[in-house]
Amino acid sequence: MLNSILLMMQQPEGADANPLMSFLPLLLIIVVFYFFMIRPQMKRQKETRKFRESLAKGDKVVTTGGIYGKIAEVKDTYVILEVAKDVQIKVDKAGIIKDMSDAQPQR
Asked: Which strand ranges, in their side-by-side order, compose the sheet holding 68-74?
């Protein structure tokens, strides 16, 4: 009796495996990729966008080119940075990467 039940539970030799089980490893890889790569990157982009929207006159910042300065004026797509006394440059907002107002000077 037990042998007949076991024989009925086994798949016939020509039958395919469950299609869901064959895609399960691929789905697992996609889920892991999303949570470890895509989601953190989206979070960083959101934080950067929020930082650039909150730029204000007097903030000390660093550009992507490594120029340290203080914001003299904020426009829609760019800022005017004062890099030295009476020296101002125009920088695109996308070029601003850090707020240096809380950084300690290095000795």
From this structure: 87-92, 78-84, 68-74, 60-63, 96-99
Q: Determine if the pTM surpasses 0.70.
A: no
The pLDDT assigned to 21 comes to 80
Asked whether residue 4 carries a pLDDT value surpassing 60, the answer given is no
The beta strand positions in 28-77, using DSSP E, are 60-63, 68-74
Assigned token pair, 25: 């490893």
**What are all long-range contacts of 56-62, with beta carbons under 8 Å and residues at least 24 apart?**
59/99, 59/101, 60/99, 60/100, 60/101, 60/103, 61/96, 61/97, 61/98, 61/99, 61/100, 62/96, 62/97, 62/98, 62/100
pLDDT at 23: 85
